[in-house]
């Protein structure tokens, strides 16, 4: 079987890559209905964590390019432009708007770019490990799938989505933990407030009933002495009997 010349391979790849870019370009100007479907499709919860993916821009796009794409998308999915499907359009519009807010801010955009950088580094490491294994198995000549630029880009894309998903799960975990901590703290505060209220009420009742207790004690003491006195006064010792001889 004759091998394909490298020039032919390059031309074939260029044609393929051009076709892929044409498809991406076509998809980037989907109709309002298609854009809403794209943003609300099954699994979109994790896809939409990546603001670059939502706005369909490359991670190295300028802020001006991102802004243009945001405006175009926000108009397409705006509820006023999709009256027949305004509820879902509103959801899609909020997703687009949230993504723009993330990328508009320099700090949050940098964090997203850091995710891309980490995804690239992890992918490169994975490829290097795979290359070592191929070398060990004597299959290095076969090449690995990620040697294809399109497949390499896809591998980076998959890793990027995974990292965004991991970040979201971590955020949710921390949020749940903080919520539970706040709940425990609030319950402890309520318990303390109830205890203080009980002690305050008890002290108030104790003070209010002080005179009653004093009067009761005086009455008790007075009654006890009278009874004791009556017993003593009423006691008559027996008369001594004369001795009989």
TrEMBL record:
Residues 175-245 are annotated as: Disordered. Residues 50-117 form the J domain. Gene3D superfamilies: DnaJ domain. It comes from the Eukaryota. GO terms for cellular component: nucleus. InterPro entries: DnaJ_domain, DNAJC8, J_dom_sf. This is DnaJ homolog subfamily C member 8. The gene is LOC106120027.
């Amino acid at each position: 079987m004759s091998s394909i010349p490298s020039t032919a391979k390059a031309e074939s790849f260029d044609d393929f890559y051009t076709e892929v870019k044409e498809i991406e370009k076509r998809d980037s100007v989907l109709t309002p209905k298609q854009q809403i479907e794209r943003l609300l499709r099954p699994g979109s919860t994790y896809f939409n964590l990546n603001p670059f993916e939502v706005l369909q821009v490359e991670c190295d796009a300028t802020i001006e390019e991102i802004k243009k794409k945001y405006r175009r998308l926000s108009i397409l999915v705006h509820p006023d432009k999709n009256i027949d499907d305004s509820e879902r359009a509103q959801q899609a519009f909020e997703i687009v708007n949230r993504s723009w807010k993330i990328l508009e801010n320099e700090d949050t955009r940098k964090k997203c770019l850091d995710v891309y950088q980490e995804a690239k580094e992890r992918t490169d490491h994975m490829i290097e490990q795979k290359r070592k294994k191929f070398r060990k198995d004597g299959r290095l000549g076969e090449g690995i799938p990620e040697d294809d630029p399109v497949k390499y880009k896809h591998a980076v894309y998959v890793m990027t989505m995974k990292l965004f998903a991991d970040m979201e799960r971590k955020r949710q975990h921390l949020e749940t933990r903080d919520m539970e901590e706040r709940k425990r703290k609030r319950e402890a505060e309520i318990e303390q407030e109830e205890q203080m209220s009980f002690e305050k009420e008890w002290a108030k009742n104790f003070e209010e009933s002080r005179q009653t207790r004093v009067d009761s004690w005086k009455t008790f003491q007075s009654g006890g002495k009278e009874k004791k006195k009556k017993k003593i006064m009423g006691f008559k010792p027996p008369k001594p009997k004369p001795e009989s001889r």
